[in-house]
Write a structure and sequence with these properties.
This protein is of the alpha/beta class and 346 residues long. The chain is 40% helix and 13% strand. It is globular and about 65 Å long. Bound molecules: phosphoric acid mono(formamide)ester.
């Protein structure tokens, strides 16, 4: 098993143990792997309830009032960072956006020293994006026990809020998962998004999941490990699909010649309107962004009637509100249990 392909099973077990409290409440959100259907459904239902906040005159609820949430993005991001910030503000939290490039990490300060300093400012939650698989788990293991950590994407490992916002979008359009054929197309080898989607689709009981890519971009033993059907032909893979999820080519994580050229990749695996006719007439087309137009799909599909790509972004806000409010709720339970009766304000 390649270390680049999978997180070791022991580390995955540690993540499962770490992210729930003794009663099964969400303390951290590091990976979808190992979470049960009831918890994933609770996240989706809670997010559903937050959709209406965007339509309120005052777009705020007080669930995280008085809490401090720090965004630590060691890798670039547009959608994830901004929706986490907006979600935290809609929950009435105070938000710190650490500009890593302009921070003391650029002078050599270690990650742990950065954490200790933020802890000294009484931060309640770290939202972490990092190029190394396992970084969010490392921070959860080393942060003060009262602090929650949310993984906003770590290396090739996981991007659990993206996985859940994708499930939310699918449920919104299709009503559930039991009757669906979902096709995931593209760079599965390097995709943390795909790993989170595969875990969620499996747990939510999707009828059939297919992965479609050149042989060089499919992880070893994918059919066995992920319980999916593997295709190397796009037309065959998307035939009669209800949902098509296109993935970005992760050039920044490719350390070898995985593809002859982007032109040839588009010719073989790029989604076009002509190819879309292979899928069901009411198919939805998804992409986590950022899109490489003319590489993964053409603009007619990206901006077309079957595309729900911008809905995914809107839904990300509600899903991130759900996850953050659940973790803060778990912190509040722990705080109440540790506070002696009558110890509140006079
Ligand atoms: N989907 C996603 O993670 O996009 P960003 O890199 O812009 O956050």
């Amino acid at each position: 098993m390649s270390a680049a392909t999978f997180i070791p099973p022991a580390a995955r077990a540690d993540a499962r143990r770490l992210q729930l409290d003794a009663e099964g409440n969400l303390r951290h959100f590091l990976t979808i792997d190992g979470l049960d259907r009831a918890l994933l459904t609770e996240i989706l239902d809670r997010a559903e309830g937050f959709l209406g906040v965007a339509r309120q005159a005052v777009k705020k609820v007080p669930l995280c009032r008085g809490k401090i949430i720090a965004n630590l993005f060691f890798e670039n991001s547009t959608r994830t960072r901004t929706t986490f910030e907006l979600a935290a503000k809609r929950l009435s939290a105070d938000v710190l956006n650490l500009n890593i490039g302009a921070s003391a990490t650029a002078k050599g300060e270690t990650l742990l020293d950065t954490l200790r300093n933020l802890e000294a400012m009484h931060v309640d939650m770290f939202v972490v994006r990092h190029a190394d698989s396992g970084a969010a788990q490392f921070i959860a293991e080393h942060a003060a026990p009262r602090i929650s950590v949310i993984n906003a994407g770590d290396g090739r490992h996981a991007h659990p809020t993206q996985g859940m916002l994708d499930m939310f979008t699918i449920r919104q359009h299709k009503g559930g998962f039991a009757d669906l054929t979902v096709a995931i197309v593209g760079d599965l080898l390097h995709s943390r998004v795909a790993r989170s989607q595969l875990a969620a689709l499996h747990t939510l009981g999707t009828r059939e999941v297919r992965i479609i890519a050149p042989r060089t971009l499919i992880p070893a033993r994918a059919a066995e490990v992920f319980g999916v059907r593997v295709f190397h032909d796009l037309d065959a893979g998307i035939a009669d699909a209800d949902v098509i999820i296109m993935l970005r080519l992760q050039r920044e994580r490719m350390d070898g010649a995985f593809l002859p050229s982007e032109h040839e990749y588009f010719h073989l695996f790029g989604l076009t309107e002509r190819r879309l006719f292979m899928a069901k007439p009411d198919v939805i087309v998804m992409h986590p962004g950022p899109i490489n137009r003319g590489v993964e799909m053409d603009s007619q599909v990206a901006d077309g009637a079957r595309s729900v790509i911008l809905e995914q972004v809107s839904n990300g806000l509600a899903v991130r509100m759900a996850v953050m409010s659940m973790c803060i709720g778990t912190q509040n339970l722990a705080l109440a249990a540790a506070t002696p009766p009558g110890a509140g304000h006079a």
